[in-house]
Amino acid sequence: MFIDEFSSLPPIIPRGPIAILGLGGGTAARLLLHLWPKRELIGWEIDEILIDKARDFLGLSELEGKNKHGGGLTIHIDDALSDANDPKGGFAGIVVDLFSNGDVLPVLKEAETWFKLRKRLRPGGRIMINCVEEQRRGHDDDETLQSTITGENHVLYAMSKAFPGERLRVEGTAGELAEA
């Protein structure tokens, strides 16, 4: 998934804060606040050095706090999957961008993780996840991709357990779409 796809989340969710789980250098936060300056973003990143460098060299500190439109970014250097700093009423949207060594975190392949994330949403809230590369690795055709989506150890399979009956979409390069 390209970071700019995350910017399509605000128009389809209710009012309220958006969580960014895996803030990284703040690219998604910057784009979201540029396009949706009234949105409150709460970002989690486990790597304090990355946040410090992003503040120093990528202008992350410019996004922190409230902006003139009432939106802004709050940063937590902590486990993104902990609900300890969640707002009352939950999140309107959750962006999940959690990787280690180039792969999605193994915990994202567990249904229990998605049950917990679902509880962090307010009514009408949605989750958007970056996991396309993990799904596409070694799969060149739609049939193989579809079997991967429903495989036991796959992120979307785990998500489908927590969101039964919900439409899960996978978008890859232009024109590619698979649904579970």
Topology:
Layout: H1 3-6, E1 18-21, H2 27-35, E2 40-45, H3 48-57, E3 65-66, E4 72-77, E5 91-96, E6 99-100, E7 103-104, H4 111-119, E8 121-129, H5 132-136, H6 142-149, H7 155-162, E9 169-171, E10 177-179
Parallel strand pairs: 1-2, 1-5, 2-4, 5-8
Antiparallel strand pairs: 3-4, 6-7, 9-10
Helix pairs in contact: 4-7
Based on Cα principal axes, name the global outline: globular
**Strand-and-helix sequence, N→C?**
HEHEHEEEEEHEHHHEE
Total strands:
10
- The helix-and-strand class reads alpha/beta
Major sheet characteristics: 6 strands, mixed
Strand order of the largest sheet: 3-4-2-1-5-8
Cα-atom Rg, whole angstroms? 16 Å
Unreliable stretches (pLDDT < 50, length at least 5) are 173-180
Helix content: 25-40%
- Continuous helix count: 7
Mean pLDDT: 84
Strand content bin? 15-25%
In whole angstroms, the N-to-C terminal distance is 17 Å
Family: Belongs to the methyltransferase superfamily.
Keywords: Methyltransferase, Transferase
Protein name: PABS domain-containing protein
Organism: Selaginella moellendorffii
Name some characteristics of this structure.
180 residues; alpha/beta; six-stranded mixed β-sheet; two-stranded antiparallel sheet; disordered C terminus; methyltransferase activity; PABS domain-containing protein; SAM-dependent_MTases_sf; methyltransferase
